[in-house]
Amino acid sequence: MDDAIDAGAILKIMNRVKIEQGQVLQVFAKAEADPRNNIRGMRHTMNNDSDIHSTRHARAAVGGLIAGLVGDTQIYVSGELTPPHSVIFCLL
Description:
The protein is α+β, with helices and mostly antiparallel strands and 92 residues long. The chain has one domain (7-91): CATH 3.30.1330.160. Helices cover 33% and strands 17% of the residues. It contains two helices and five strands, in the order H-E-E-E-H-E-E. Strands 4-1-5 form a three-stranded mixed sheet, covered by helices on one side. A two-stranded antiparallel sheet has the order 2-3. Helix 1 (7-19) runs parallel beside helix 2 (54-70). The longest helix has 17 residues, at 54-70.
């Protein structure tokens, strides 16, 4: 995934699973709030919240995107990613 809202990357993989008549067994991802405070040139406020660490915001946002596209909430999204503006996505 290029960033936290890269639905196209997930859809591309899901389409391949469908074509090959496969089945999604597990989804893993790593996500971190972009320290530049923007995604695709649009401002985000994940790094400015004093109540919740930015990693939790990023994990929730990426987890919600993935769960919605995959159709399963049993995914695992970890934080503390380097470089922090990308997302690692693994589908088993």
